[in-house]
Amino acid sequence: MNVHDSERLSGLLEDAGYVRAPEGSDGDADVVVFNTCAVRENADNRLYGNLGRLAPKKTQRPGMQIAVGGCLAQKDRDTIVKKAPWVDVVFGTHNIGKLPVLLERARVQEEAQVEIAESLEAFPSTLPTRRESAYAAWVSISVGCNNTCTFCIVPALRGKEKDRRTGDILAEIEALVGEGVSEITLLGQNVNAYGSDIGDREAFSKLLRACGRIEGLERVRFTSPHPRDFTDDVIAAMAETPNVMPQLHMPLQSGSDPVLKAMRRSYRQDRFLGIIEKVRAAMPDAAISTDIIVGFPGETEEDFEQTMHVVREARFANAFTFQYSKRPGTPAAEMDDQIPKAVVQARYERLVALQEEISWSENKKQVGRTLELMVAEGEGRKDGATHRLSGRAPDNRLVHFTKPDTEVRPGDVVTVEITYAAPHHLLAEGAVLDVRRTRAGDAWEKRNAAEAAKPAGVLLGLPKIGVPAPLPAATGSGCGCD
């Protein structure tokens, strides 16, 4: 969700006449924007470290502006300009559309502008967006969250859930497909609670089926659902809608019923494993991923073993594994029995080792299969050295494949046979079996030509953003908005 917000910030600023600065040139940009997350403890340290690094550069460049937005800005508000008085603009999660105006006001008044709206001013998808991908796009269907998980600060910063009109969602998707996009990911803090505003518990499954009727839309994904709201009609819609991909990210957080209760997660181990069983029965080839928090306050060795049990039973394709991070303002931060760091680290390492073993085992089952891949841009760091390209299988597994003799563009589709499996990727070392040029590939080619022809302008620096892929283990709290 933060990545998509960054795309909107880019769109707003480009509409206002700014131009993206070359990668790595943030110290030479006229405007540098930080879009922050407050979920993990190291977000604070990273922000103030980066602001400190830019302070001398700003002194050397009169007129340079620095803006800080997002969840950490919503939380810290005036603290940011006290710790870093060289910051020009601070804006929150509900008023990202004000950034160009705030920058101009700070320039004219020559003083920091801090503006934090307490509620949503306009649904974010009505703002201009500078999509990072020509072939794949995020589409928000809701913002905010009605859950009260004790470890999560996001509801306090993003507000209550607000659903977007179905017609507006479908209109945006159809417009994107018209521009060449062939894959969309539906976004929400709790995506399958969509419809709670109008009391329609089947609204999300109906939306998935409606996406299936959009001509030219080849792949539909969504993130992140909540086990509480994951109903049988959603499983049926996934299984029966051809362009909804056989991939599911289902946050577990813990396999222990007492810990889930302390987290205020409104499901228990049996409910979670029951969902996994139903999904596998309807879609045997589905790749299921998850979020897991290790070391939540009060977690005993027995509690942790219950998490390990669920991991063994569910056999996740991959997992985002997090060490519990105490966030001020959350109920969990005040709980007794905070777990010592050494204990958390040891449990975390055991969990990562188990999941690595399972991920590798599950990937080995893909060897010998023939898969259609959507060619990706920039996902294979060694592609240049190995003369390979990279793509995503329908279940979102990353596959590196031998570069064919014919031209292949991001967004095109290739057919390959899997020859080797590693824990976090697959290889197709033989010749590509088929190449299908697509409208998405045409769109990528057209965008690249347009980018090359752009005139110089006022330079804008933002963190590198794009369509993110599943990652190996990380540390943090396990909230889906990271």
UniProtKB/TrEMBL annotation:
GO terms for cellular component: cytosol. Binds 2 [4Fe-4S] clusters. One cluster is coordinated with 3 cysteines and an exchangeable S-adenosyl-L-methionine. The keyword Nucleotidyltransferase does not apply. It is an enzyme of class 2 (transferase). It catalyses: N(6)-dimethylallyladenosine(37) in tRNA + (sulfur carrier)-SH + AH2 + 2 S-adenosyl-L-methionine = 2-methylsulfanyl-N(6)-dimethylallyladenosine(37) in tRNA + (sulfur carrier)-H + 5'-deoxyadenosine + L-methionine + A + S-adenosyl-L-homocysteine + 2 H(+). Keywords: 4Fe-4S, Cytoplasm, Iron, Iron-sulfur, Metal-binding, S-adenosyl-L-methionine, Transferase, tRNA processing. It holds the Pfam family UPF0004. One of its GO terms (molecular function) is metal ion binding. Its cofactor is [4Fe-4S] cluster. InterPro entries: Elp3/MiaA/NifB-like_rSAM (IPR006638), Methylthiotransferase (IPR005839), Methylthiotransferase_CS (IPR020612), Methylthiotransferase_N (IPR013848), Methylthiotransferase_N_sf (IPR038135), MiaB_methiolase (IPR006463), rSAM (IPR007197), rSAM_horseshoe (IPR023404). It is found in: Cytoplasm. Residues 1-108 form the MTTase N-terminal domain. Belongs to the methylthiotransferase family. MiaB subfamily. Catalyzes the methylthiolation of N6-(dimethylallyl)adenosine (i(6)A), leading to the formation of 2-methylthio-N6-(dimethylallyl)adenosine (ms(2)i(6)A) at position 37 in tRNAs that read codons beginning with uridine. PANTHER family: CDK5 REGULATORY SUBUNIT-ASSOCIATED PROTEIN 1, MITOCHONDRIAL TRNA METHYLTHIOTRANSFERASE CDK5RAP1. Monomer. This is tRNA-2-methylthio-N(6)-dimethylallyladenosine synthase. The gene is miaB.
